[in-house]
Amino acid sequence: MNEIDNLLKKRNKFLGPNLPTFYNSPVHLVKGKDVWVWDKDGKKYLDCYNNVPHVGHCHPKVVEAITKQASTLNTHTRYIHEGILNYIDQLTQTFDHKLTTAIMTCTGSEANDIALRIVQNVTKCKGIISTNHTYHGNTALVSQLSDTNPSSNYLSDFFKRVSAPDSYRMNGSKSIDEYSQNFAKQIEEKIIEFKEEGIGFAGIIICPYFANEGFPDLPKGWLKPAERIIKKYNGMIIADEVQPGFGRLGSNMWSHQTIGLKPDIVTIGKPMANGHPVGAVITNYDIMSEFRNNYRYFNTFGGNPVSCAASLSVLEILKEENLLENAHSIGNYAKNGLKELAKKYDLIGDVRGSGLFFGIELVTNKDHKTPASEITSNIVNDMKDEGILLSKLGINYNTLKIRPPMTFSKQNTDFLLEKLDKVLKKNML
Fold first, then answer.
1. Average pLDDT across the chain, whole number
2. Cα–Cα distance between 53 and 361 in angstroms, integer?
3. What CATH code is carried by the domain that includes residue 141?
4. Residues 6+ apart with CB under 8 A from 422
5. Given CB 3.0 to 4.6 Å as the disulfide criterion, which of 8, 108, 114, 328 pairs with 250?
6. pTM of the predicted model, to two decimals?
7. Do 166 and 132 belong to one domain?
8. Same domain assignment for residues 216 and 281
9. What residue ranges in 98-200 does DSSP mark as E strands?
């Protein structure tokens, strides 16, 4: 038995079965720096997937912030400390409407769980709408938001789902306007069902970039009809920015700004502290006050001094190193490179993305837009063998997901495109 097999056996014994490993042949990582990671055998990989090290693996400023605060004080949040106040002050300045208060958590799952509790508490209703191919975390509550991650024995009547957006196929619509109206109509139908069932409508939770749905290429404002419907029925909007937030899209700090949406609540996590486990719920003062006055909530570790120090350092690095501008320019360069590959390979049905969150949808037939799901899996594994770590997602799991650290460069992009060209040629039909 080799070392990997032995580790997999131990994982199964100590952590239980069916833990994901991404690749057919798992990667045993031991070190990371900037956009690179190394395995146990010294093989070097370009990290084109992991958005947790948002400003690069082991960024010296983040390491220093964590080390300095950990060597000074770390405790729970029943004590007063300035770190959390300084961070929330800086964080909320990045929003352009009145989102000024926050609850800090340890994960995005926690943040989304609390956000759902807030909208149910404020509206005094229970009904929550989401898309059928989303992902918002793994608590008992939020795991019910998607058909892809259900707690099958405990599904609640409080959750309903609408069809995930698909800009490539348009779900039969002939125009963006028609598509927008149909999406809004789906939402209204679910709202009416909630009312008829006596549950009432509390709100909707979406990733504004619809990341897990395959990041459809839809224009700014396309959600306006849906937004009007939600507000017509006094519902609240939760924007889950765990994946696309913190400048990932290159155009704005937050993806809801990019698409022209004004959520009542924003949730964040993953990249927030560059790998340190942190999340948060951000809303306005009135909503937060109503929740705090009616619902006892306390988090031992959420907003602890070390987490806040790490989080603040990430905000500072994004600004100091002009990483939003980098995401914009390198993202455009990468998309242009992918479009050139699309001219060579019929396997590429669609190229889309924004900033440093981009990819290609693979099909076996362009006319029929037939998903090449198995080939996509093969390409993900072949790219790993070539020293590139990426993944797949989308409604049919046939879209390559490329989401590197914000420090990704033109040179890194050229290396990615070179290897992808090689692997596509190997897998061409």
1. 94
2. 25
3. 3.40.640.10
4. 386
5. 328
6. 0.96
7. yes
8. yes
9. 101-105, 127-131, 159-162
